[in-house]
Amino acid sequence: MVDNPSDVITRIERHAAALSLALQVHDNIHALVAAGRLHAAVRRAGKQCADGRCLPWLDAIAHATDEAITKLARLPHDVHAADVHRLLAWMDVMAPATVREKHRTGPDLFRLDASSLDLCGVSMQHLHAINCAFVESRMDRVNFGATTFERCDLACASLIGSAWNGAHVVDSSFAKSTLRDATLDHGRFTRCDFRGADLTAEPGGLCSVVRAATFIECDLRETTWANRDLAGVKFHDCKLYGVVGAPQFEGAEIIRPDLSRNGDGSIGGRHHVVTSLRT
């Protein structure tokens, strides 16, 4: 099967990003898995270029490959017993696709603990993460575009100016995180905890308008949305008690909102939601 050249580059960059993050966190098992996948992607790209299938993209592929080889040179050589047990658990989730068919080889990150670290320079684009922790980590301006996060914890993280374009996040926590000026366009968040999160934007800034984002069964109690234009955003079965910030809310799709303090569904109705967000 011949790969699309852009997919070849995306695959190399994705595995290289996973390797970079693993090296920064000093997680050897993640580094070894990412390196193996990166090596396979580079070899496959090289074969297709040699066959003349990717010649128009040769320079771009060569650039991605050169950066990948540089990262492979930093590969660790020691693996501890605890890492082996975690690898066996990882292999259990590799066979079936858990969210998207394109991730049929399993997640790029599994049970990675990157809490309380400065990760502002990392790339997360296109990565698939399961059961990872980024609690209190600093991830300002990180690109999470087209990522898939499942059961990840980003509570109290600094995510200022981060980009979540096209991200798919499930059963994850952003509780008390700082998402000021974050781009959420076309992101899909399902059963996520945003309680107490700061989602404000600069007045009239590029991130003030949220385009086509979807929140399904999310807990958005006591979140702050100052200067956000939420027209076109979908809120389905979300908990919205205590939401503040007076954003522009007309045009948003609100279905079965829960305005009760305890999130028990005792108070609801679209009119009450719009009123509360304007106070």
Question: What does it look like?
Answer:
With 279 residues, this protein is an alpha/beta fold. It folds into two domains: 1-92; 98-279, E3 ubiquitin-protein ligase SopA (Pectate Lyase C-like), CATH 2.160.20. The chain is built from five helices and eight strands. The chain has helices at residues 5-25, 28-50, 58-72, 81-92, 270-277, and strands spanning 109-110, 128-130, 148-150, 168-170, 188-190, 214-216, 234-236, 253-255. The chain has an eight-stranded parallel beta sheet, with no helix packed on it. The longest helix has 23 residues, at 28-50. It is elongated, with a radius of gyration of 20 Å.
Report the uncertain regions.
96-104
**Overall strand count:** 8
The helix tally amounts to 5
Which series of helices and strands comes N to C?
A: HHHHEEEEEEEEH
CATH homolog superfamily of the largest domain: E3 ubiquitin-protein ligase SopA
Total separate domains: 2
Name some characteristics of this structure.
elongated, Pectate Lyase C-like, 279 residues, 2 domains, alpha/beta
Topology summary:
Elements: H1 5-25, H2 28-50, H3 58-72, H4 81-92, E1 109-110, E2 128-130, E3 148-150, E4 168-170, E5 188-190, E6 214-216, E7 234-236, E8 253-255, H5 270-277
Parallel strand pairs: 1-2, 2-3, 3-4, 4-5, 5-6, 6-7, 7-8
Helix pairs in contact: 1-2, 1-3, 2-3
